[in-house]
Structure to design on (141 residues):
């Protein structure tokens, strides 16, 4: 799963594709039906999803977001709505990723994770293709 060009912008809902850097920031395009482009200045906090991780009790201390999103894609149960109760969100995360750090991962983080997953699965479903499937599709074209 390649999340190198997908970012979240602090203070703005949704996800954005990074188009190209400028002298004063970056140009992004919203990942939705509108595909609206705009420039984001250096004073805005832009987080590239490839560099985001979920705190966990493991050797590395975290699990990469791409791995968590892939687990969500393979999840057989129901994914709660982002407006679910804190208990429901924590129970979902417990079932999905038992080693997550309950002290450092808040319900608001899980809400954001679920909303990101819903955006990506609706508008960027090719991200969830397995590497072998993606290679086979590329070779067929």
């Amino acid at each position: 799963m390649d999340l190198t060009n997908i970012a979240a912008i602090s203070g703005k809902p949704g996800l954005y594709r990074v188009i190209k850097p400028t002298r004063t920031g970056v140009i992004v395009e919203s990942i939705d039906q509108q595909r609206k482009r705009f420039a984001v200045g250096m004073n805005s906090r832009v987080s590239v999803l490839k560099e985001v991780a979920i705190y966990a009790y493991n050797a590395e201390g975290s699990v990469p977001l791409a791995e968590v999103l892939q687990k969500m894609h393979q999840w057989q149960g129901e994914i709660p709505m982002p407006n679910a109760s804190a208990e429901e969100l924590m129970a979902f995360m417990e079932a999905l990723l038992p080693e997550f750090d309950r002290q450092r991962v808040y319900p608001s983080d899980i809400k954001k994770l679920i909303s990101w997953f819903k955006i990506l699965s609706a508008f960027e479903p090719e991200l969830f293709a397995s590497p072998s499937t993606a290679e086979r599709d590329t070779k067929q074209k």
User: Anything to note?
Assistant: Confidence is low (pLDDT under 50) at residues 133-141.
